[in-house]
Structures are given as C-alpha cells and as structure tokens.
Amino acid sequence: MTSKLAPSPTEAGCDRAPGLVSVESARAALLDGVTPVSGQATVPLSLAAGRVLAAPLRASFPIPPFDRSAVDGYGLTGSGAGPFSLVGSYPAGSHGPRHVRPGEAVRLLTGARIPPGVCAVAMQEGCRIEAGGRLRAPVLADGENIRRCGEDVASGAPLLEAGIRLDPRHLALLASAGLCEVPVRRRTRVALLSSGDELLAPGAPLREAAIHDSNRPMLAALLAASGAEVVDLGLLPDRRDVIAGALAGAGGFDAIVASGGVSGSEADHLLGALRDAGGEGSWTAIALKPGKPLVFGQLGEARCLFLPGNPVAALVGALLFARPLLARLAGHAPRPLRGLPARLAAGWQRKPGREEFAPAMIHDGEELFVERVGRPGSARLTPLVAADGLLRVGATAGTLRAGDMVEFFPFDGCFGLA
Ligand SMILES: Nc1nc2c(c(=O)[nH]1)N[C@H]1C(S)=C(S)[C@@H](COP(=O)(O)OP(=O)(O)OC[C@H]3O[C@@H](n4cnc5c(N)ncnc54)[C@H](O)[C@@H]3O)O[C@H]1N2
Ligand code: MOO
C-alpha cells in the first residue's frame, strides 16, 4: 500500500506541483484491497435507512398487486360514450362488484380495484349524469386511467441489488413489496481521535495558547452520517507513546480516523505512533488545497486515515478520502465525485499545482453562478458555515476570472435523501 502512494515520475510535475500525489491516485491507493466488512443483521424497515443491503431482494408478488383506478371517476365497460347504467360506487380498499356487464358503468375512486368487465376509467370531470341517472362519458382508449397489476414490479422480478445504501425511497419500495425487515451488513466501526497539546475538549474553559477541538465533533457527525458507528478515542497530547498506546488498542476497528499531527514537524507523531503500535503507513503530500498532508496506513484490521489538523482541510480530507473508504468498507460503491458545472461570479489569483476546494455561495440567476465565501483559509470555519457547498478548481488552473467554469458540490445535494 505504501509504495503505491509514491508519485510516479510521469505523474509528478505534469498537472500538479512536483512531488505531490493527485487526489485521484491517492484515493485509488487508499481504496486498493479494501473489502467490505463481514457480518450481517436483520433490521426492521424503521431502522434500515442508511444501512447497506446485504443480499438481493425479489418481489414475491406483483406491484401493484391488482389493476386499480388512477383517478376518481367511472369504470366503463366499453370505449364508447354511453349512456351507461350506474351499478354501484367503490372506494379504494373495497372489494368491488364481481362483474360489470356491457352497457354498465361503476363509480370508482382513486386506488379502487378495477372490477372484471371494466376496460377504462373516465375522469369524473369529463362525465355527466343525465336525468334518469345514466352516465355520459368521453370516448376512452382501452386501459386509460388504469394502473396495471405488476406495472411497477413483476412478480419475482429483482427489487434491489445487494450493496445499495438504503434511503427513504428504498424503504417505500420494500414496504410496497410487503417486507417489514431487511438483511443488512453490520455497520462499520470507526475509531476517531484528535491530537494536539493546544487542544481543549469541547466546553473546557479557555487557557492561554489553546483552542477548542472542533474537528472531533465535526468528523464524528460526518462519519456517523456515512453510516459508521463512531467510537470516540478522545483528545490525545503530542506524545508519541500516548498516541501509540491509544492506537494499539484500536486495531480491531474497521478504520481509525485522526486529525492533526501529520505534517512532519517534531511535534507531529501520528505516523511514528502508528509504527510503534505495530502498524504501517506512509506520509503523503496530496495536490490538494486545503488538505495537503495526509497519512494512510493499516493497523491490524483497521485502515488508518490521519487527516490534517486545520478544520477545513480535515473536512475536505474526510469528504474526499474518509467517505469513499467507509463506503467501500460498508459494502457499497463509493459515489462518483461529480460536481455541477457552474460559472464563477468572481475570480481570484492562484498558482497552478494543487486541486482546490473552497467554500462557495450560489448566486441567483438563470445559470448556476457561484462565488467563494469570505477570505480563504483552512482554519476559518465561518466561510464554511455561510457556504452552500464547495467549489472545485482543477490542479492545472492558474488565475481565475469571472465567468470561468468550475465544479460545484452543494453540501445537501438537491434533496439530501442519501
Ligand atoms: N512548514 C510547513 N508548515 C506547514 C505546512 C507545510 O507544508 N510546511 N502545511 C500546513 C498545512 S497545509 C497544514 S493543513 C497543517 C497540517 O498540520 P498537521 O496535520 O500536522 O496539524 P497540526 O499541526 O496538528 O495542526 C494544524 C492546525 O490545526 C489546528 N488543529 C489541529 N487539530 C485541531 C482540532 N482537532 N480542532 C481544531 N483545530 C485543530 C492546530 O491547532 C493548528 O493550528 O500544517 C501546516 N504547516
Ligand atoms: O493543506 Mo492545509 O491542509 O492547506 O490547510
């Protein structure tokens, strides 16, 4: 794993600064050989959102299970305009008549079973009841306004493939197929820690030269939203032996995620501590801004991903690397990272060499226009909070001008279902 992360001679220096590894090849190296966790559970539908389906599911009956009316109206026995004699009224859920004979029509509400003999349903808005109670209807095509048995899913057809991360849409499909519980993979277990002598636990009173640990709550929430069970290993000092001790007990997790202490100064002990704990790993400089220094490794069963300490860099690293790692471990395909094409509302001076992600806001308009929020900086959280998402600039881009195309990644997707 380590050697694969070294930049190849062809890679270095072509579209990024020499010696830096592209995000793409770093991600490929991180995911190389990662297999899904074993172990399954059966969970009720009410707890299945966010879990990964462990086995393919098929429909044991057609959906819908019977022909039914798509509208409030009248079931007709022929396509002609009538007049028809009305022979009853049937709401959704009722049995309906045994048979409707030629020349007859039946009142049907949306969702009602189509009785034998009915070949189309006329919407009530287009119908008229004559004096004497007979029905006049528009001429209809055979099958109009009828939802056919099995038109959504045929009996025995595949419902969902294994490896799908279930979201509210899937729960609706599974419920409509009569399922109340589903087989899912066990959740991945991720250990999370922060390191740094300058860090204070959330809520602790400020002391001189210290700041609060803002990465741990952010990363814990982000990893949990990716479906992982997060175990907090806490806040560790800049002491190699203490960090090694904490890591040594974490080899049974599926992944260990840390932030801080990865840039290689005399106070950065994560990589050394990983080795002391019996693991292996390597330091990598990624062609990424923010988020250049990164440590990947392995300790026992656990894949290790140590992110930089600056909070925006930690977030970007978690989105680009931890998310796909957790997806692969959880047994579903990492979602391809594809942003929306957007135009810059304003440019800025920059040097080519590193792919860049910046907090950005959407401008109203017919086209998607985005603009960086606030002053750039990997330690500034307020632009991140004010932003609608992150914009991405490719590594080769130099100074940017208003109107240039970039990619935009909204934080909440469009509807945020998954
Ligand atoms: N001479 C160089 N110095 C630095 C470079 C470089 O290339 N040459 N890179 C800079 C970049 S870029 C980053 S990012 C950081 C990464 O450093 P570390 O991962 O070793 O992180 P620390 O030094 O521990 O912390 C950096 C910064 O972030 C603060 N921090 C750390 N953890 C947290 C936390 N949990 N919550 C909030 N803030 C945190 C820490 O106090 C530092 O201010 O290195 C640069 N330096
Ligand atoms: O790359 Mo650092 O990760 O810019 O803040």
Could you please describe the fold and organization of this structure?
- The protein has 418 residues and is of the alpha/beta class.
- The protein folds into four domains: 9-38 and 186-330, 3-Layer(aba) Sandwich (Molybdenum Cofactor Biosythetic Enzyme, Chain A), CATH 3.40.980; 40-62 and 151-185, Molybdopterin biosynthesis moea protein, domain 2 (Alpha-Beta Complex), CATH 3.90.105.10; 68-147, Molybdopterin biosynthesis moeA protein, domain 3 (Beta Complex), CATH 2.170.190.11; 340-415, Beta-clip (Beta Barrel), CATH 2.40.340.10.
- The chain has seven helices and 26 strands.
- It has helices at residues 23-31, 168-176, 215-225, 240-248, 270-276, 311-330, 382-386; strands at 40-44, 57-58, 68-69, 73-76, 84-90, 104-108, 120-123, 128-129, 134-136, 146-147, 158-160, 181-185, 189-195, 199-200, 211-212, 229-236, 255-259, 280-285, 288-289, 293-299, 302-307, 340-344, 355-363, 369-372, 389-393, 405-410.
- The strands form seven sheets. A six-stranded mixed sheet has the order 7-4-6-5-9-8, with no helix packed on it. It has a six-stranded mixed sheet with strand order 16-13-17-21-20-18, sandwiched between helices. It has a five-stranded mixed β-barrel with strand order 22-24-23-25-26.
- Strand 23 (355-363) and strand 24 form a beta hairpin.
- Helix 1 packs across helix 6 (311-330), helix 3 (215-225) runs parallel beside helix 6 and helix 4 (240-248) crosses helix 5 (270-276).
- The protein is elongated.
- The two termini are 30 Å apart.
- Ligand LQZAQKY5 is lined by residues 194, 196, 198-199, 211, 213-216, 259-263, 268, 290, 292-293, 308-311, 313, 378-379.
